[in-house]
Design brief:
By secondary structure, the chain is mainly β. It is built from one helix and 16 strands. β3 and β4 form a beta hairpin. The protein is flat, with a radius of gyration of 20 Å.
Length: 188
């Protein structure tokens, strides 16, 4: 582990704070008037999945944690357990819904992704930049509709809801950005 100044934290970085591991979700640097600057950080607890906010002084040093990653394939969910398989050794790993948080809404069988380990224990996953999901429920598509800023909700095969343009209909496969759950385009 090494330490980094709070102002050098970046989203996605994993840090140890108060003896626990957190992933930096978002942060903003603030300098109120003639007072000392600070960093307002939104952190996700890697043990509980809870989001917390913390204010770091700009002089604070934060312990950075380095994670090991392995290429895996998502196999299947079983109750609260999600099973992944190492694509080279075929070893299987299990993570709970709590470990995975909102990422479970993007897990489809055979999805290739990375699993993150800390001190030999799987603690989370890193999703690919885009994921193709099938629309299972939405209002009927309008063929003549062009891409506008008007969107409609669509339920995906995994249960999450994504806002899509009016021309997208049930049964279509769309490409989604899993970082914020936004529609990108129709998948081929």
């Amino acid at each position: 582990m090494d330490t980094v100044q709070a102002t050098r934290m970046r989203p996605g970085m994993v840090v140890r704070h108060d003896g626990r591991l957190f992933a930096v979700f978002s942060l903003s640097h603030r300098t109120p008037g003639n007072k000392r600057g600070f960093v307002q950080a939104k952190l996700r607890d890697l043990t509980s999945g809870a989001m917390v906010e913390h204010r770091f002084s700009s002089e604070d040093m934060v312990e950075r944690a380095f994670l090991d990653e392995k290429e895996v394939e998502f196999l299947y969910p079983e109750g609260d357990l999600y099973t992944f398989m190492d694509t080279t050794t075929f070893e299987q790993y299990h993570l709970t819904r709590t470990d995975l948080g909102d990422t479970v809404g993007y897990l489809i069988p055979n999805l290739q992704l990375k699993i993150e380990f800390f001190e030999g224990r799987p603690i989370g996953i890193e999703l690919p930049a885009t994921i193709d999901l099938k629309v299972v429920e939405t209002e009927p598509g309008i063929k003549s509709a062009s891409a506008t800023n008007v969107m409609k909700p669509a339920k995906m095969e995994t249960g999450i809801t994504v806002l899509v343009p009016p021309f997208i209909g049930e049964g279509e496969v769309i490409r989604v950005d899993p970082t914020d759950g936004t529609y990108l385009e129709r998948a081929k």
